[in-house]
């Protein structure tokens, strides 16, 4: 009984009746088209003519299902009323030809089966109800209700209520079977096509790339600021009582570093709040403000440039180069302390070359739980631009080298 009259069966029955309601405009159009072929007779005078009009209506319904928005509307109804798991149905309009063909097949099936069940739902309950109450109201026997002549017999009249109940149960069984049929066909006809799965995979890959890019921005910006602030604060603490001027300069550097980092952090978090709009270019500092970074990095940097890279490098390359230098300085601060750093940035043909060196520290390097993401992040930035980066000990120095393609670097940005 639960399969016939349970909550799921009732919802699927409503879904079928919805299909019948949607089929009515097409049925009326089909009756108009069938009219000239039957001598303009009224199709409602014959059941065969009604089925003919219904048969003409279904291909018309299939044609209208090629509109892309038919699929999301159908999917919404199936999810709400048929109990089909969400992951088995496609999201969004039907874009490809295969998806539209499947949607047209579903729409035709829904309207066809729903129209039949709706017709039965309208016709069977009144007739079955009449049979149930017929033995109690003898006056109904004389009313022209189209009842069979056999009901004039006493034995048939006694069995009429049972026949009425059986008809209602049969109607519920037909509706349950039809609802089960549509629920089984929905994942096949409204499920994701190979093109839908590919598009979903591309969206997931794009989202993952954006998250990784934002993570790199936060790591490089905040990580460098914390390293610089830690070094400046430690140096200021050691000379707090003996060199007030140095302490004042250190506190000024800490203030400016944190203010700049908070601005960069706000920009990245703003992109996170924008959701899908975060797929555009990330705002951020470029080589134009590299001198300011070097001046307040917390370590002495001997900087040499060749070819005016700040003015001639394209903006995306300039932005990534700034982050690579920033992360290189963070590593130098973290592992080398206050040891001086040499930095060279040069335009060599169609490449921007970054070379950073600092002496290896005699003390044990700072190891963070789980390892750091600085050097892999530098490699990822270079790879995304079509370049490459490498870092490692060479003799008694640590060297970071990155090469980024810039195309025709002699042109305007």
Automatic annotation (TrEMBL):
- Residue ranges crossing the lipid bilayer per the database entry: 12-39, 51-70, 109-134, 154-178
- Source species: Streptomyces agglomeratus
Q: What Pfam family is a match for this entry?
A: HisKA_3
E.C. numbers: 2.7.13.3
What GO MF terms are annotated? Answer: ATP binding; phosphorelay sensor kinase activity; protein dimerization activity
Q: Under which name does UniProt file this protein? A: histidine kinase
List the record's Gene Ontology CC terms alphabetically.
membrane
InterPro entries named among the record's database cross-references: HATPase_C_sf, Sensor_HK_TwoCompSys, Sig_transdc_His_kin_sub3_dim/P
Q: Where is the Signal transduction histidine kinase subgroup 3 dimerisation and phosphoacceptor domain?
A: 211-276
Q: Which UniProt keywords apply?
A: ATP-binding, Kinase, Membrane, Nucleotide-binding, Phosphoprotein, Transferase, Transmembrane, Transmembrane helix, Two-component regulatory system
* Reactions mediated catalytically: ATP + protein L-histidine = ADP + protein N-phospho-L-histidine
